Amino acid sequence: MTTRPRLTPAIADVRRAVRVAIPSPMFALVALSGGPDSLALAAATAFEASRAGIPAGAVIIDHRLQNGSADVAARAAQQARDLGLDPVIVRSVEVGTVGGPEAAARDARYAALAEALAEVGAERVLLGHTLDDQAETVLLGLARGSGGGSLKGMSFSQGIFVRPLLDIRRATTVQFCRDSGLEPWLDPHNDDERFSRVRVRDTVLPVLERELGPGIAEALARTAAQLREDTEALDHFAEEIVEELAEHAEAGISLPVRALAANPAALRQRIIRLAAVAEFGVSLSRAQTIEVARLVTDWHGQGALDLPGIKVERQGGLLIFSSTRKA
After folding, report:
1. For a tag site, which of 141, 238, 262, 267 has the least CB within 10 Å?
2. Has residue 241 been placed in a domain?
3. Would the pTM of this model clear 0.90, i.e. be above it?
């Protein structure tokens, strides 16, 4: 007979986070790797779903990047079944090379998760990212000189994906597994210092904690939350302004220079980026955006800017965006 684990602080914290994230009657799938974070999430989801009388399953993605990955996936699937999750889906994926190994694996994984969700008619996929993952993401963004779009980190909810554990420390998920008698799989990639995230986790954050005092991870997560609020507000305003000001023409769109100049730089540059991506599917870098903005704020008769896929020029009081791609 299986005995229920006693309710420890770690178990209570993780279950509470899941309870808030999957209100009844949401049908969710847990993205399960078998590691401590996702295994704790799976166990808490199984408990809360059973209590609420709602279905919950698991999906395991085999990236086939390590020897024995099929065995790891099979073990995680059995753990999901033992927890009472149903359905339990295992998918193998082909990982490409675009963007580097981490980005390519993530793209393949997210596509497979979305397919599994659609296949069984679930509503959300639960991901096991923790507060520590959030802190690492923000710190990597800072090191790369990224803007607010990167520094805002991961959101709790993004389309079909939900991250219930973003306020939970990694140590808590490890303790959850220990208290529950669960044996997580320890991914050797998490100790491979070829990956920048591993170096941040094992070296950079501990140095910051030692030299600046405890609470660095929490502070970085708070920074992400504040930047996310600001970014979402500015993006909302930019969308409203573009909708109001943009004039569509056969070759593209135009924006009035005077209205652009009247907006603060943060909004003006968002409007420019939004016009490019919404109309032409072109994502401008910061340097490209600044050059376009100079046609508004530092105009002295310069000619058109030829950017990948688009041309931007000033004609009288209008900033005109047109496609350079052949039909």
Report:
1. 262
2. no
3. no
Sheet holding 124-126, edge to edge: 88-92, 56-62, 28-31, 124-126, 161-162, 157-158
Q: Tell me, what's the pLDDT at 1?
A: 42
Predicted local distance difference test score (pLDDT) of residue 327: 55
Tokens for 294? Answer: 């100079």
Phi, psi of 262 (to 5 degrees): -75, -15
Q: Same domain for 104 and 212? A: yes
Please state the domain count of the chain.
Answer: 2
Question: Is residue 228 situated within a structural domain?
Answer: no
129 and 36 assigned to the same domain:
yes
Q: Is residue 237 part of a domain?
A: no
Q: How is 95-127 classified by DSSP, letter by letter?
A: ---TT-HHHHHHHHHHHHHHHHHHHHT-SEEE-
- Residue 2 confidence (pLDDT) above 60: no
Q: Which domain holds residue 53?
A: 9-220
The beta-strand segments (E) located in 32-104 are: 56-62, 88-92
Q: Could you tell me if residue 64 is left (phi over 0), alpha (psi between -120 and 50 degrees) or otherwise beta?
A: left
Q: Taking each helix axis as running N to C, give the angle between helix 265-280 and helix 286-297, from 0 to 180 degrees, rounded to the nearest 10.
A: 110
In a domain, 3, yes or no: no
CA atoms within 13 A on the CB side of 132: 18
- Torsion angle, alpha carbons of 40, 186, 172, 76, to 10: 0
40 touches 176 (CB < 8 A) = yes
